[in-house]
Design a protein that fits this description.
Layout: E1 3-10, H1 16-24, E2 27-34, E3 37-45, H2 46-52, E4 59-64, E5 67-78, E6 85-92, E7 98-108, E8 117-120, E9 124-130, E10 137-141, E11 150-152, E12 163-164, E13 171-176, H3 186-194
Parallel strand pairs: 1-4, 2-6, 7-10
Antiparallel strand pairs: 1-3, 2-3, 4-5, 5-6, 7-9, 8-13, 9-12, 11-13
Length: 195
């Protein structure tokens, strides 16, 4: 995974008014924490941060007042209407360190014929991986699965260097039989017409 570099500035103003002023200046308020150190309140350039966060679990190299920090996004708050990033929590990581992250589950292949439906019970998996080698996603084959079949977390092939951190017996995907709509009974239809 490529590391994205961003310049950050320490912020000293807090509260709603300060956050609004920060956002009007095309900056995003953020907090960096981890490894037992005090939390550092910073601002990041909004456009560059938005581009960086297009990649799930992106590794970000921050420069804060001449010091370098390696971080991953832990929580991103977005405006519900506009989709703008309003605040970000960043977790400090070290090269070689293992971290727990959620990665997306994608599927490939076709279900067995019969009009069955694929249901995502979980669309992400919790895995532990080295901070500089976090996978973006995993792909699961659903080829030939039929109604009643399911894929458990332990059945999902993980990239090398990653291990499952969540419940291995949790259902990730399941195939359910399509429900056919029953035609309305003629007697019921006639009764409603007369009324």
């Amino acid at each position: 995974m490529a590391e994205i570099k961003l310049n950050a500035a320490v912020r000293s103003e807090f509260g709603k008014g300060a956050a609004r002023r920060t956002r009007r200046a095309n900056l995003v308020p953020a907090v960096v924490y981890g490894h037992g150190a005090d939390a550092v309140h910073i601002t990041l350039p909004a456009h560059e941060l938005h581009l960086a966060l297009r990649t799930a679990n992106v590794l970000i190299g921050l420069e804060i007042d001449g010091k370098d920090a390696l971080v991953i996004p832990k929580a991103v708050q977005r405006n519900a209407l506009k989709g703008n990033i309003e605040h970000v929590d960043l977790l400090t990581v070290k090269r070689g360190e293992k971290v727990e992250v959620e990665i997306a589950v994608h599927v490939e292949g076709e279900l067995a014929p019969g009009g069955n439906l694929l249901e995502y019970v979980q669309n992400t998996l919790l895995v532990e991986a080295e901070a500089t080698h976090i996978p973006e996603s995993v792909t699961v084959s659903i080829a030939g699965l039929d109604a009643g079949d399911s894929i458990l977390a332990k059945d999902v092939p993980l990239p090398q260097g990653s291990v499952l951190a969540g419940d291995e017996d949790a259902v990730v995907l399941q195939v359910v039989a399509a429900q056919a709509e029953e035609p309305a009974a003629e007697g019921t239809e006639a009764a409603t017409t007369e009324a």
